[in-house]
């Protein structure tokens, strides 16, 4: 016998504090290893909470679940943080959140919508029209407890690296777009990510014309640091960026990265520097199989995206 869905309200988040009161405890319970500061970042990009949807059962009178429906300017969208408190699961509230999300994307005329789904939800997302286009692998490098961070890297043919904060934010957004097909200017061109506390990165500029050709971004998370994205024109440059970033992190802190599986060299670059597969992956899925050209075979993402920014943003 089906459980009757309790009376509820779905609305946009009223403040980042309201979202965080629900989201951050769930991140800790689920072990998703995010940073509390991520809430403010995603909230801002979600049009200051307008597209961070909350479901509020009348009985509790407080948010019990949420869904982040990110809408990017180039008619693309991303679904993330589709989560509910344990006491509110199995009552149909998730289904109602999904319906409201669908309306949100329709109103914005969003034509390309993606998500990274865990294996347990794969069949559910397929029934909702999403098709898998690859996998995102989770790799980690655990704390070394006083041992050297990594072995020296052969720097033959190395290029000059610059601090990411010195790079043109608009160029960061452009390179990100060229690899993902998602216009995430609200993350990169605004400085929202680069200017965060406990975040850093390095960039590569072409010596011919000072054009940005690659970069790596690292931010603090609950258990160490999250690495990504990592973009580079060559395998050697990707490895140099990763090596440099790893040497900027204390050996006593763990590291995690989400590897773009369609780039066959992504895992190799990390594994050669001591990272290991955590045995967990996401299915990268797109509604009706509409994959951005940049993430298809032959696209720049497949050639140069070694690690993604975050499964929560595409």
UniProtKB/TrEMBL annotation:
The lineage of its organism: Eukaryota, Fungi, Dikarya, Ascomycota, Pezizomycotina. This is N-acetyltransferase domain-containing protein. Residues 8-154 form the N-acetyltransferase domain. GO terms for molecular function: acyltransferase activity, transferring groups other than amino-acyl groups. Signal peptide: none annotated. InterPro entries: Acyl/Acetyltrans_Enzymes, Acyl_CoA_acyltransferase, GNAT_dom, YitH/HolE_GNAT.
């Amino acid at each position: 016998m089906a459980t009757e869905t309790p009376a509820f309200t779905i609305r946009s988040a009223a403040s980042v504090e309201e979202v965080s009161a629900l989201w951050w405890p769930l991140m800790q319970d689920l072990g998703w290893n995010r940073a509390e500061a991520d809430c403010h970042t995603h909230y801002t990009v979600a049009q200051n909470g307008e597209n961070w949807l909350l479901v509020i059962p009348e009985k509790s009178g407080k948010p019990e679940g949420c869904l982040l429906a990110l809408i990017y300017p180039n008619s693309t969208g991303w679904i993330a943080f589709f989560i509910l408190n344990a006491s509110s699961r199995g009552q149909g509230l998730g289904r109602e959140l999904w319906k409201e999300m669908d309306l949100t994307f329709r109103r914005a005329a969003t034509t390309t919508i993606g998500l990274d789904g865990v294996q347990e939800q794969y069949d559910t997302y397929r029934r909702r029209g999403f098709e898998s286009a690859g996998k995102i692998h989770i790799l980690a490098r655990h704390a070394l407890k006083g041992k050297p961070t990594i072995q020296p890297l052969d720097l033959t043919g190395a290029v000059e690296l610059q601090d990411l904060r010195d790079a043109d934010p608009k160029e960061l957004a452009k390179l990100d777009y060229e690899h993902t097909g998602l216009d995430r200017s609200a993350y990169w061109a605004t400085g929202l990510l680069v200017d965060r506390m406990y975040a850093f990165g390095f960039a590569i500029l072409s010596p011919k014309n000072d054009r940005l050709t690659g970069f790596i971004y690292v931010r603090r998370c609950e258990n160490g640091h999250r690495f990504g994205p990592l973009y580079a024109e060559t395998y050697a440059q990707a490895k140099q960026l990763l090596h440099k970033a790893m040497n900027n992190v204390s050996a006593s802190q763990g590291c995690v990265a989400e590897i773009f599986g369609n780039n066959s060299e992504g895992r190799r670059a990390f594994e050669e520097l001591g990272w290991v597969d955590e045995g967990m992956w996401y299915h990268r899925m797109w509604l009706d199989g509409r994959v951005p050209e940049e993430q298809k075979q032959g696209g720049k993402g497949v050639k140069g995206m070694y690690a993604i920014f975050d499964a929560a943003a595409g």
